[in-house]
Structure formats: C-alpha cells, structure tokens
Amino acid sequence: MYILGISAYYHDSAAVLIKDGKIVCGAEEERFTRKKHDNGFPFKAIEFCLKEAGISIKQVNYVSYYEKPLLKFERLMETFVETYPCSLKVFLKGMPEHLDYKIKIQKTIKDKLKYKGKVYFVPHHLSHAAASYYASPFKDSAVLTIDGVGEYQTTALWKGEGNKINLLKSIDFPDSLGLLYSTFTAFLGFKINDDEYKVMGLAAYGKPKYTKQIYKLIDVKDDGSFRMDQSYFAYRESFKMWSKKFVKLFGKPRQPEGVMTQKHKDIAASLQKVTEEIYFKILNHLYKQININNQQSAISNLCLSGGVALNALANGKIYENTPFKNIYVFGAAGDSGGALGSALLTYYFILGKNRRNKIKDLYFGSSYSNSEIEKELEAYGLSYRKFSSEEKLIAEAAKLLSEGKIIGWFQGKMEFGPRALGSRSILSSPNPRAMKEKVNRIKVREQFRPFAGSILQEKVDEYFKVPEKTHWSPFMIFCFIVKKDKRKELAAIVHEDNTCRVQTVNRKDNGRYYKLINKYYNLTGTPCILNTSFNLKGEPVVENPKQAIEDFLKTKMDHLVVGDYLVSKNFRRNFYSR
C-alpha cells in the first residue's frame, strides 16, 4: 500500500512516499527548484518520489495533505474581520492566492497529478504530532507540537497511546511562541522562517538583560499557558510583525546587513531565555497531565515536533529541567515533516494498521551512480582520482581532514529536513579554532554562527555532557555542553556558551560517514569532525553532483569527495562553465 504525503504553501514544501507504513523516499521541493524554502506545490518532489519508487500516480492508494485548507481560510477570514480596517491591505493582497489555489488542494491533486483516489486532509498540528510519535520507538508518549501557527493551533499537548494520538490541550492563534520568536528574528534584521537559528546562535554572545521587557509582551501561567499582548504586535493586520509600541519598548529594529550591536545580542539572549522558560513550563505541565491517572510506572517518554522543536539549545536542556528521560525529536520537525506525519497518520490511525517503524536516519532523498558523477566531472573538464575500494577512499579523505583540509562530501542518498547529516556536507577538522573562520568564509555567513559536530556514537559521553552514556542524537537537534577538558580539542565547534549541536554517528545507520569519522579518529585520536551543510549563502543544500561541483569551484574548499571520486583544486584541467 502506497501513501503519498504532501506539504505546501507556507514554507519548505515537501513530498514523502510510504509503503506499508515504512518510508520509501522523501524530499523538499527546494532541492529541485533551487528556491530556498520553496513553498510552492511540490510537483518536482512528487515526481522524484514516484520515480524513486518505480511507480506511477495510479499505484498510489491514498494521498494525504498536512493541514485543512478550509479551516485555515476560516481563521484568516476571522482575523480580517477582527482587525478591519487595518488589515485591508493584507486581505486584498493575500486573498486572491487563497481563493485561486490555496484552498483548492484537492483540485490540484486530482487535475495536475491526475490522481483519482482518496485524499485525506490531516490537521496541521496533528501532522506534526504524527511525524514525531509514529517515527519514535515509543508505545506510549507525551507529545508536544509547537510552531508559528497551523490552522488555529500554535501549541498542542498530546498523549500518544498505541496507534492513537489524543489531544489534551492547545493554544490558538494569535498567541504563539513561534510567532514571538519570529517577531524578534525580523526585528533583529533576519528573515522569518529562515533565520531563527541565527538568533539562537547570536544568543550565546549576549546577556539576558531584557527578559522583563519580553514578559511585558507575553503573560505566562505556571502551567505554561500564555497570552500575548497584541498591542505590541502587528502580524494580524499588516506586513510587519511588530507595532510602534514594540519599538518604543525595544528601540529601532536592526536593518538587514546592519551593524550588530551588543544590545542586539542581549535581546537575542533574553528571547532565548524566555523561550526556554516557557518551553519547560509547558513540558512540566504535560508530564503531569499524561501521568495524572497513571496507576503504573510514570510515562517519561517525550516526542517533539513543529518549528520551535528545532531550537536545539532549548532541547538540550529538557533533560535537566523536566522529568522526561527519553526524548525523540523528528529531524524534519518543521513543515516538510508534516508531509510524512500526514501519511503516517493516514496509515496507522485512519486505516488502522498496526505495524510500527522507528525512523533512525533521514536518508530519504536522491542518489547518483558513479557513472552519472563521472559524466559531470568530465563535462567540467576536471581531473580526478577514482578509488578502487571504499577503504582507500576513506583513508585518503580522513588523511586530508587530519591535515586541516576542507572537504565537500557528497555521498549516497540526500538527507530529508534542514540538517546535513553526512550525505551533503562540508567537513573539516574540529580544531584549531581557526577552522571555524575558514569554513564560515567558504559558506559566506556570519562569524557568530556556530558549527555542529558529528561524533562516533560510542564516544559521545567522553566529549559532551549528555544525559546518558549511550545518548542517541542522529538528527543534530540537541545542543550539549562540551566537557572542559575537550574544548581545546573541539575548538572550532565549541560555541561561545561552551555548547555544541551534536550528531551521533553509528556504524549501522551511517555507513560510509561513520567509517570516515572512525578513520579520522584512528589518525588523530579525535572521534569528531566539523559538519555543516553543503550549500552557499542563499541556496538550498546541493541535490546533484553538478551543484556540488559548482559550489566546490566557486569556493576555497580544498577537495571534493563525490561518490568514489576525489577532486582537488590542483586537479583542475581546462574548466569551462556550462
């Protein structure tokens, strides 16, 4: 049985195909269109999924969509009525696209895809909940979904039991922790739904001096429920997130590319602190709620999803600040993951199937053969070395990393979600500290932004203050303190607050990437490398060998390891651009 899951029309549109409850393939539309965070209908991602599975749309049994468009339209209309006449401009600009195609999802699926079967529409936050819970190893779990906004919900507390996900409590628009964070993201001169992670990184350089002012914007109860004072915000009725009253409280907004002052850093630190405090209050209340009538042992499992669940700094502190012991955050926690969630909910709940498949990696995307790779290398006039064995390739790549070289690493199936997890990555040694500046220059990004570390699973507790020796964090979605005696050894990935975003890598799930890090460990004694996504400023992660080659040639990357081939800058011959 095939189910095609789709998310579209907000940000990070995606398609996912599952067969008998198990994911076959999935990808974000941006990887094919090259429009970062592409929110259009994912025709190309759907085309990829069908081609990858070797089926036609006629063989798809069900299509599921990650939200209810009519319900979202109802909320938009209610907001317009409540805020009229201030919202007239927004209404006149936004309504045509909603009336034209955003509420006509079924028509698009039926007509454009030529699909004749059943289409299910799954509520936005339920899609988030399903993506995390059904992908987790837990039979019973607390579930928290938290983001900007779905149809109405912005925060929802759930209890997962068997194949059921039951809603316990929710908070609705316009009260939204995600929108609070996004407001400050824009105020600090960054892009909404794109740069929130920059604010998180910037927070490490500031002090939380403005928490009292932020708490003027949001009234938080002991159970984590909150109400926002809408007089400080303008996102309901204008194209700006904040009002004049907000500016009076915090001063003038920073212009994009403007000077970053200490005040901006302190505001970021204050926002992160307030977000964490609210986050933990919600989670502590959720723990009490799911265990209130529990006569047996307490449920200490937690699943997280939604855009706010990508806040790795907050996630790493959950263990210390709540009773939850086992935490699963689906790696594609944002809207792209909703495509998978809606498909899984259709299979497990609507269709009543019992099979469960824990998702342990996100390698759901496209891959390319050596012959396809070699064809591109030849087209670009590049000299290269093809290795006769994986062992020799790994040995050479690890040696180059140990010598301080920066490598573009293009291997196997592309990752699903926002993180590069060892398939489409730029890699370097985690020391000395100067490696951070070198890689940041290649990526053309702000120097305050930190890099993640990929570490051998069996060594994670030796280098990071993790909750347990066998801590498993394959999706790079938790930040942990680097142990004091290891900070010099990992200097290029230790952030200003002594934390690092961690990806654990194991032999079974990470294949060639594990072998690379393990070989690097044998050479250097360090079981960890710097890992960042293989893309340049403003572009999505590379999807095919051509894009990898072009980014390699545009930058000061030293080497490119693509499939079984090694390309170095001094191997270049008669390069021409196509």
3D structure, described in words:
- Helices cover about 35% and strands about 20% of the residues.
- The protein is α/β, with parallel strands linked by helices.
- It folds into three domains: about 150 residues, ATPase, nucleotide binding domain (Nucleotidyltransferase, domain 5, 2-Layer Sandwich), CATH 3.30.420.40; about 150 residues, 2-Layer Sandwich (Nucleotidyltransferase, domain 5); about 200 residues, DHBP synthase, CATH 3.90.870.
- The strands form four sheets. The chain has a nine-stranded mixed β-sheet, with helices on both faces. The chain has a five-stranded mixed β-sheet with strand order 3-2-1-4-5, sandwiched between helices.
- A hairpin with a 5-residue loop joins strand 9 and strand 10.
- Helix 16 packs across helix 19.
- The radius of gyration is 23 Å and the shape is globular.
Q: How is the secondary structure organized here?
A:
Blueprint: E1 2-7, E2 14-19, E3 22-28, H1 30-33, H2 43-53, E4 62-65, H3 69-83, H4 88-102, H5 105-112, E5 118-121, H6 124-133, E6 140-146, E7 153-161, E8 164-172, H7 177-187, H8 196-202, H9 211-217, E9 218-220, E10 226-228, H10 244-250, H11 262-291, E11 301-305, H12 312-315, H13 318-321, E12 326-329, H14 335-350, H15 370-379, E13 385-386, H16 390-402, E14 407-410, E15 424-428, H17 434-443, E16 452-456, H18 460-463, E17 478-481, E18 499-505, H19 507-524, E19 528-533, H20 545-554, E20 559-562, E21 565-568
Parallel strand pairs: 1-4, 4-5, 6-11, 11-12, 14-20, 16-18
Antiparallel strand pairs: 1-2, 2-3, 6-7, 7-8, 9-10, 13-21, 14-15, 15-19, 16-19, 17-18, 20-21
